[in-house]
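Query form — protein Nitroreductase family protein

QUESTION: What is the three-dimensional structure of this chain?
INPUT:
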Amino acid sequence: MSQNASVSTLTAEEVIKARHSVRQYKPNVKIPENTLNEILELAALAPSSWNIQHWRFLVIQEQAQKDLVKGIAYGQQQVSDASVVVVILGDLEANLTGHQIYGEAVDAGHLKPEIRDTLVGQIDGAYKNEQVARDEANKNAGLAAMQLMLAAKAKGYDTVAMGGFDKNRLVEALKIPSRYIPVMMIPIGEAATPARPTARLSLDQLVINESF
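ANSWER: The C-alpha cells for Nitroreductase family protein are given below.
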C-alpha cells in the first residue's frame, strides 16, 4: 500500500507539523491526476496582493523531462525520482491579470466600474516600477509554494522546496516566456527514506514584541 493511501484526514496543525523536506523519493510512483489537480487547486487559494495571483505552476511528470531538469538542478536525484516536479513561476506582468479579474467582477455585478478603474490604476502604477513587479512576483509565488507543500502533505505526499538550479538554463530549456521568472522548484512524491530531523529556533529567539 502506498503511503498516501494509508493517510487519515489530518488537521491543519497536524499537516504543518508533519511536513518535512524530503530529498529521497520512491521512483515510478504515479500521483492520480485528480489528486494532483486537487493539490494545485488548493495551492491556488493562497493569498496575493490585489488578488492578482502572481503564480503559475509549470508541472513536469514525464521521466525524460524530469531527467532533463535534474541536470539543470545540478544533478539532484530527487528531481528524477519524484512523481512530479512543479516549477513555481512568478508573474512580472500580473497587473494584466488584474484587468481580467476586476473586469470580470464588474461584469458579474460584484464591483462598480469606478472602483475597478481605481484599483486597476493603482496596480498599473505600481507595476511601472520593475523592482516592485519582481518583488511581488517572488513574494506572492512564495505564498503559493508553501500552500502547495502543505496541500501535498494533506494528500499524503512529501515535498522539498528547491532553489538550487540554474534559472537561466531552466528558462531556456522549458521555453519559459520572459513574463515569468522561476521562483523555486518543488518535487512531490512518496518518501523513500524519512526526512532527517531539523531543529527550530525557540520563540524567544524569533519573536520581537512591539519594537526592537
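ADDITIONAL NOTE: The domain at 3-92+129-195 is CATH 3.40.109.10 (NADH Oxidase).
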